[in-house]
Design goal:
By secondary structure, the chain is α+β, with helices and mostly antiparallel strands. It has 7 helices and 10 strands. The chain is globular. The two termini are about 15 Å apart. The model has no long low-confidence stretch (mean pLDDT about 95). The structure holds adenosine-5'-diphosphate and magnesium ion. Magnesium ion binds next to loops. The site of adenosine-5'-diphosphate has 18 residues, from strand 2, strand 3, strand 4 and strand 8.
Amino acid sequence: ARAREVIERAGREERSVLSAEEVYAIFEAYGIPVAPWAMADDAGQAVAAAERIGYPVVVKVDCAAIDHKSDMGGVAVNLADGEAVRAAVEEMQARLGSHGELRFLVQKFMPGGRELIVGASAERGLGHLVMFGLGGIYVEVLKDVVFKIAPVTRTEAEEMLSGIKTAALLDGVRGEAGIDREAVITLIQRVSQLLTDLPMIREMDLNPVMAFADGAVAVDGRIRI
Ligand code: ADP
Ligand code: MG
């Protein structure tokens, strides 16, 4: 109910791209694990949020007019103290303020995971297509992704993980630990449930999902209605 309300309000306000706060609230309503986060309107709030979350943190700009945050210098990772958080926020305010009202997502820094992508798009007459792949160059250069139509069953989610060409990377190479497949399978199924319940979503992506030997969490999300 909470997720539907968030989307319906955005619709009434004629906003097609949800804010970070709305996206994470919807993910949490569906039990999709996300890195600990809080929103801030200014540097002071961002520092207070970082103290609650615990260092190191990431600061990201949140602005309806900015789609790819890192391309715009709107993502500052691995911030170790309040001074670094304050500097990151003030620098983004000065440089990006002309794009419109800025808010800031303060998020736990989650290093060392395997970056995965889970995406979805509404296809006329078909419902939602759910996409899965590895992040970074694997998706951009190698286009190594697989698709299923929602609802995605457990077996289909398992097939998605084993269906990419680089599936071996999920099991770990050269002594690296493999990822928690069970956590990713559950995450994909919850994404599928969310899409089935909320057909007004046109596009959604979790990019990246950070997958670890123990658990997987989304650290970036977009929803377009
Ligand atoms: P965008 O996709 O809008 O450029 P992201 O939020 O995906 O912004 O951040 C860009 C990149 O920064 C991610 O792909 C990831 O490599 C890294 N990153 C973002 N958030 C975190 C985090 N909480 N912990 C670790 N790395 C992160
Ligand atoms: Mg991203």
